[in-house]
Amino acid sequence: MSLSEPRDKQLPAFLTLLVTLIAGVMLVPILVPDAAHLVVGRVLSVAILLTALWAAGVRPIRLLFFVPLAVAYFVAHHMGGVPAVTVALSLRAVFFAYTTVLIVLHVLRARTVTGDTIAGAACAYALTAVTWANLYEILELLRPGSFQIPPSWLLQPSGDPSFALQYFSFITLTTVGYGDILPLNPRAGGLCIAEAVVGQLYVAIMIARLVGLQLVQQPSASERR
User: Which of 57, 61, 50, 60 is nearest to 20 (CA)?
Assistant: First the structure.
């Protein structure tokens, strides 16, 4: 399956990816006890990677992104250390960014508005936030204290900030801005500005595209007679 296939053939993959993303972002904090957040979150991270690969289409060029990421993930999980985790997060950000671009191109090339295009647009938007969350994690890992994170947001026992920064990424992308987590240096601020701009442009462009397609699909007055 690839993004060049006929419309609606990607729909199961897009819907599966969207459900997995929603589960990781929304359902885990609500349904999973705090002590299990980190473990369940890591499992869902792997599920998101696999479903993103499915949505993008399993092709050799895409495996060039995915296989090194899988190896880096394994090494980071079993060995730890700042260098290994940084490499894993960097490859993850690149893979998600690449997948997001593929899905956006797929949606923009669509001739009609279908469940496929809507699901694809939603996946790309959510993946944008996930991509930026990885960038925030890298910055916080390399420059500790780049973000002001309340202690209650850190996953114990290691004080992992991954979920806090994922939440912060979605809040920044949607420009909600609760102010509970804050950037504390110009690098963090620059990343936040970039995400906010991308998020607003994405919504504006994608809605304009989908509405335009929908208007084209509507029969004219003469055709309805």
Answer: 50
